[in-house]
Design goal:
There is one protein chain. This protein is α+β, with helices and mostly antiparallel strands. It has a domain of 40 residues. It has two helices and four strands; from the N terminus they run E-E-E-E-H-H. It is elongated and about 55 Å long. The two termini are 25 Å apart.
Length: 80
């Protein structure tokens, strides 16, 4: 299962865990992803997406259809 947000494209990052003695150990920073169903009344469809919580907040603010149109305009996704 891929750990990539389907709307924003957020993916795992790598970095270091730094201890008190300043020893650096490699680690991964994973995005906060949730599987969520969205109803799009303009298309009369329900879609299930794996999205980051920041994308969910943006969808709650702008609405799912206008957010998808905005992403399609930028070329990030293809809207049918």
């Amino acid at each position: 299962m891929s750990k990539v947000c389907e709307l924003t494209g957020k993916r795992p990052m790598s970095g270091h865990t730094v201890s008190h003695s300043n020893v650096k150990t490699k680690r991964k920073f994973l995005p906060n992803l949730k599987k969520k169903k969205f109803y799009i009344p303009e298309l009369d469809e329900t879609v299930q997406l794996k999205v980051s919580t920041s994308a969910i907040r943006t969808i709650n603010k702008k609405g799912i259809f206008s957010y998808l149109k905005e992403l399609a305009k930028k070329g990030d996704i293809k809207l049918n």
